[in-house]
Specification:
This protein is of the alpha+beta class. Helices cover 21% and strands 17% of the residues. It comes from Mycobacterium bohemicum. This is DUF3027 domain-containing protein. It holds the Pfam family DUF3027.
Length: 305
């Protein structure tokens, strides 16, 4: 293996110093400290935890780092890094430190996120409690009802009477999500049709300023119950024409339940004519043979004329 190469990824060498800049003999001392570095890891963690030698990199003219593949449960792709140092004229290097570092293919924990940022859309389940932040910019205080029915009816449309209502920031963020989401004008479904929700009979506009752009779909076969952009569209638009023709071919209905099922009449057996005629012929022949006279045979010794 060439110097600076790694079976688990490339090892970057420092540009601070090169071998050519080192004093004579110092490079050989640092590079040749492989066995010393391996022995340091074995003493620190055990012989079974040290794998193949991965290479050496250089920190400065008096220090180098030898790397070994780590064989530790749960640390796949990690490396042992042993820093050795030597001064000009030294005959051997000394071990400065032994550390376990992740390699290019090491399994690492995900980037840390604060608790309030870990919950993502879709994570809320039945029974979960998710309180908004104390200074949530999406909410602003509401106001109490005045007691005047006419005033309160108008105030209810804009959220008066509630403790909190959505601020302009919250409304803009929601509008941006809806506009760029699954039911926005740039979604694959919307791009597949020329008809828009603004002209659809199933489109129910929202109240207030958001109703200028958004509404709720009331078609159970489409985006039923979802907030849709007015420029969204689908194939279930109320103005979608029926296909030409009568559809599938029409045939006379056939229902085997209305048929009368009856047992077929028995087939009469054929009379044995040939056998009767044969038996009759045999009987007549026997009767004729019995009726025909027969002459007695001649007796021996009687003279004849």
């Amino acid at each position: 293996m060439q110097r600076g190469d790694s079976v688990s990824g490339p090892i970057e060498e420092s540009a601070v110093a090169t071998v050519d800049d080192w004093p004579e003999g110092l490079a050989a001392v640092l590079t040749g400290a492989t066995d010393t570095a391996r022995a340091a890891v074995e003493e620190f963690s055990g012989p079974e935890t040290v794998g193949d030698y991965l290479g050496v990199s250089y920190e400065d003219p008096t220090a180098a780092t030898h790397r070994f593949l780590a064989h530790l449960p749960g640390y796949q792709g990690w490396q042992w890094a042993v820093v050795v140092a030597a001064h000009p004229g030294a005959e051997r290097a000394t071990v400065s430190e032994v550390v376990l570092i992740p390699g290019p293919t090491a399994l690492l924990a995900p980037h840390w996120l604060p608790w309030e940022q870990r919950v993502r859309p879709g994570d809320l389940s039945p029974g979960d409690l998710l309180a908004p932040a104390a200074d949530d910019p999406r909410l602003v205080p509401g106001y109490a009802a005045s007691g005047d029915p006419q005033v309160d009816e108008v105030a209810a449309e804009v959220g008066l009477g509630r403790r909190w209502v959505m601020s302009i920031i919250g409304r803009l963020e929601a509008a941006e999500r809806w506009h760029t989401g699954e039911f926005g004008p740039d979604s694959p479904m919307a791009r597949s049709t020329k008809r828009m929700c603004r002209d659809c009979g199933f489109f129910l506009p929202l109240a207030g300023s958001l109703g200028r752009v958004f509404g709720v779909c009331g078609n159970e076969l489409s985006a039923d119950g979802h907030v849709v952009d007015k420029q969204y569209g689908c194939g279930a638009h109320s103005d979608t024409p029926a296909p030409p023709g009568t559809g599938s071919p029409v045939y006379e209905p056939f229902d085997d339940g209305v048929l009368d099922v009856s047992q077929a009449p028995p087939v009469p057996e054929a009379e044995p004519v040939a056998e009767a005629e044969s038996a009759e012929g045999v009987g007549e022949a026997e009767s004729a043979a019995e009726a025909e006279p027969t002459e007695p045979p001649d007796e021996p010794g009687e003279p004849t004329d």
